[in-house]
Specification:
The longest helix has 46 residues. The protein is flat and about 70 Å long. The N and C termini lie far apart (62 Å). With 96 residues, the protein is mainly alpha-helical. The protein has 2 helices and no strands. Helices cover 65% and strands 0% of the residues. It has a domain of 67 residues.
């Protein structure tokens, strides 16, 4: 087998592995999206009273807390109503 044939075979193997990797990533992405949709439907059913389970209560409460905090608030920050930054004892940064 010549050098060119070996390079061609190696390139074909690499392409096959890359395709398999892309398929795996796509499958994992689809699975994640489907789990997310299942969660949204479950949340809606719990909120409407059509579904009740103690295992879901904690997660539903967490979602309610996060929704009350708002999408722009950092994770772990308490819910606030002000948009002003906290006071600083340092002067503003100077451009260089």
């Amino acid at each position: 087998m010549g050098l060119l044939d070996k390079a061609k075979a190696a390139a074909e193997q690499a392409a096959t592995k890359a395709k398999e990797g892309v398929e795996d990533v796509q499958t994992k992405r689809d699975l994640s999206l489907t789990y997310g949709e299942l969660g949204k439907v479950t949340y809606r059913l719990v909120e409407s009273g059509e579904l009740s389970n103690p295992e879901l209560t904690t997660l539903v409460e967490k979602i309610r807390t996060l929704e009350a905090r708002g999408p722009g608030d950092p994770v772990g920050a308490p819910a606030t109503t002000t948009t002003e930054p906290p006071p600083s004892d340092q002067p503003p940064a100077m451009p260089t």
